[in-house]
Automatic annotation (TrEMBL), chain A:
It is a peripheral membrane protein. Residues 26-277 form the ABC transporter domain. SMART domains: AAA. GO terms for biological process: peptide transport. This is ABC transporter ATP-binding protein. Residues 1-21 are annotated as: Disordered. Keywords: ATP-binding, Cell membrane, Membrane, Nucleotide-binding, Transport. PROSITE patterns: ABC_TRANSPORTER_1 (PS00211), ABC_TRANSPORTER_2 (PS50893). GO terms for cellular component: plasma membrane. Belongs to the ABC transporter superfamily. GO terms for molecular function: ATP binding; ATP hydrolysis activity. CDD domains: ABC_NikE_OppD_transporters.
From TrEMBL, chain B:
Transmembrane segments: none annotated. This is ABC transporter ATP-binding protein. Residues 9-261 form the ABC transporter domain. It comes from Acrocarpospora corrugata. Keywords: ATP-binding, Nucleotide-binding, Transport. Belongs to the ABC transporter superfamily.
Length: 350, 338
């Protein structure tokens, strides 16, 4: 094989384990997103595919700059275009390609069928409107409810996300709430219209562990009640292990490993995943010196040739520098974008 | 690693109250934020004391008090026997040389207009006796090498470095005056997961090399366990439990420690359905108006009448081997329970 490996054949692979023949609820297929910047073209997402069924939780794991949030923003249709551009790929929701819909048709789906919780609730909420007004807005805009009815719905939702004394607090402003409570308000807004898919982008990163536990439990409960599918975007391997059904690990704008959660933690099939799992300290055991992945995450303006992980990889061979590894299917439910996934699974480093 | 002999840092009954004022022309004090409210501990040479707690528990104020960036309301901080809290002028300057800090955010704690050489060498401007002028550039280059940076990059600016490298610059600056104590306030929380391990390993290597004592403040309990010899758990300005890392993590006795530990996600999906979870209700109360008696009682599932009336002291309780500030202290392993 010689370089460059054109359009990696990730889309040929079964990205998902759903029952054969049925279309998953949401399927991202060979998605590419690029940004025009002054320094050059940034290819933030390079052929990402994943799929999600109702009631499932997919964790998208990756470091800053891996493209995990950009993929989510493309699904939501909230990327600023330009500078962003989607040169190819499909995002199918219930079989319809969202990228082919008109803006008004997407507005109908956004918020009603696919909703999003953002990381930083303080900057995502409008500081000059009361939280009640902001939650009620969902009902006024999408459901055409009158002011009073919408307010009643807002109080109901604040109760549902367990904000104490919702009736008294509905007229408070975002700054009057603690971080955890603000995140609950964000969640109330996102679940207001009973979406089928909830995208949670680092929903607990800014929060304390005890509050994180509260929020994650709330999300799990809401998910059970309504059989909602969830995409959880995070860099926290602990949170993923707690709630996810399956994992997509991203690195340098690509998915490097796609698998059910238990398989990844038991036996990772990509050197990056393996390195990450070995590099984190654990609360339940006192480790020796931590394994550290050497080097730095890639610069999106100047991506390494071949496999983006090759400069940091202990399994590297010559062809890793020249050929982009396709997403190899390991089993019906697992895949890894590593030429040497067999060696990684066996743990034989070079 | 905990060595015997005289502790290098002794903190006794340290209190910091920030006054709450009302009025514009005539200011009246209407209360106080009790950020740190009676904290005592020792730190020995070459030892790491981890301090954990949620935001607002006073751990960063404690760090500032240890650095003499805030004046305590009462209590004492002794660095190698010298009282930092009441020292002034030349004496304060001399004591401060021995205790340095690594900040949380490597993006805002480095001056963007100064070169790395100036940043790391700035401590020598203040404490010129450590390195004579002609010698400084060489010293700075040595420091960069020690923290794993290229000494040839001495003339670069902070923006030319990644987050992990910037944190190394901050560590080099902390090492410049050859202190015996370094206060690390959330040193890895702003870094990517794959970079965190590099910085933690660096801190451990430096500790062995220079026999440093660390105060390691973090909210990530896994990181704290990894690096600490002893751990103190703070809640609303007080230490509620303190002990060796195995005592705190494997045999916690205070309900707050247990709740905190049980909330930490374990990076292993096996048996996640059976893991014990203590979900605390609500948020911590305001430090301006802490609850009477035990401060944790408003969120505690064990609270009885005595908890509201009598403040539990930090002392060794029956059935436990380390101090805990709970009337009903009881060993309960939440991390390994399945």
């Amino acid at each position: 094989m010689t370089n460059p490996a054109p359009a990696v054949d990730t889309h040929l692979l079964p990205a998902d384990s759903g029952p054969p023949g049925t279309e998953p609820l949401l399927a991202v297929d060979n998605l590419h997103v690029e940004f025009k910047t002054r320094q050059g073209l940034v290819r933030a997402v390079n052929g990402v595919s994943y799929a999600l069924n109702a009631g499932e939780t997919l964790a998208v794991l990756g470091e800053s700059g891996s493209g995990k949030s950009v993929t989510a923003q493309a699904i939501m249709g909230i990327l600023d275009m330009p500078p962003a551009r989607i040169p190819k790929g499909e995002i199918r929701f219930r079989g319809t390609d969202l990228l082919k819909l008109s803006e008004s048709a997407r507005t109908q789906i956004r918020g009603q069928q696919i909703a999003m919780v953002f990381q930083d609730a303080l900057s995502a909420l409008n500081p000059v409107f009361t939280v009640g007004w902001q939650i009620a807005e969902m009902f006024r805009v999408h459901r055409g409810l009158r002011k009073k009815a919408a307010y009643a719905k807002a109080i109901e939702l604040m109760d549902r996300v367990r904000i104490p004394a919702a009736r008294q607090r509905v007229n408070d402003y975002p700054h009057q709430f603690s971080g955890g409570m603000r995140q609950r308000i964000m969640i109330a807004m996102s679940i207001a219209l009973d979406p089928d898919v909830l995208i949670a982008d680092e929903p607990t990163t800014a929060l304390d562990v005890t509050v994180q536990a509260q929020i994650m439990e709330l999300l799990a409960e809401l998910q059970r009640e309504s059989n909602m599918a969830m995409i959880l975007i995070t860099h926290d391997l602990g949170v993923v292990a707690d709630v996810a059904d399956k994992i997509a690990v991203m690195y340098g704008g690509r998915i490097v490993e796609n698998a059910p959660v238990h398989d990844v933690y038991k036996n990772p099939a990509h050197p990056y995943t393996k390195g990450l799992l070995e590099s984190i300290p654990r609360v339940d055991q006192k480790g020796q010196e931590l394994y550290a992945i050497k080097g730095l995450p890639p610069n999106l303006l100047d991506m390494p040739s071949g496999c983006a992980f090759h400069p940091r990889c202990p399994f590297r061979q010559d062809d890793c520098v020249t050929d982009v590894p396709p997403l190899h299917a390991i089993s019906g439910t697992r895949s890894s974008a590593c030429h040497y996934w067999r060696e990684v699974l066996d743990g034989v480093e070079r | 690693m905990a060595s015997n002999g005289e502790p290098i840092l002794q903190v006794r009954d340290l209190v910091k109250h920030f006054p709450l004022n009302q009025g514009i022309v005539v200011k009246r004090q209407i209360g106080a934020i009790k950020a740190v409210d009676g904290v005592s501990f020792d730190l020995h040479r070459g030892e790491t004391l981890g301090i954990v707690g949620e935001s607002g528990c006073g751990k960063s104020t404690l760090a500032k008090l240890l650095m003499a960036l805030e004046t305590p309301t009462s209590g004492s901080v002794r660095v190698a026997g010298n009282d930092l809290a009441h020292a002034k002028g030349a004496e304060l300057k001399r004591i401060r040389r021995n205790i340095q800090m690594v900040m949380q955010d490597p993006y805002t704690s480095l001056n963007p207009r100064m070169t790395v050489g100036d940043i790391v060498g700035e401590p020598f401007e203040i404490h010129s006796e450590v390195a004579p002028k002609g010698d400084r550039r060489k010293k700075v280059q040595d420091l960069l090498e020690v923290v794993g940076l290229n000494p040839d990059h001495i003339n670069r600016y902070p923006h030319q470095f990644s987050g992990g490298q910037r944190q190394r610059i901050g560590i080099a600056r902390g090492l410049a005056l050859q202190p015996e104590i370094i206060v690390c306030d959330e040193p890895v929380s702003a870094l990517d997961v794959s970079i965190q391990a590099q910085v933690i390993n660096l801190l451990e290597r430096l500790q062995n090399e220079f026999d440093l004592a660390y105060i390691f403040i973090a909210h990530d309990l896994s990181v704290v366990r990894h690096i600490s010899d002893r751990v103190a758990v703070m809640y609303l300005g007080k230490i509620v439990e303190i002990g060796k890392d195995t005592q705190i993590y494997d045999r916690p006795t205070h309900p707050y420690t247990q709740a905190l530990l049980s909330a930490v996600p374990v990076p292993d999906p096996e048996g996640r359905e059976n893991r014990e979870r203590i979900i605390l209700q609500g948020d911590p109360p305001s430090p301006a108006n802490p609850p009477s008696g035990c401060r944790f009682r408003t969120r505690c599932w064990k609270a009885q009448e005595i908890c509201a009336e009598e403040e539990p002291l930090l002392q060794i309780r029956p059935g436990a081997d380390h101090p805990s500030a709970c009337h009903f202290a009881e060993v309960h392993d939440v991390v390994h329970a399945s």
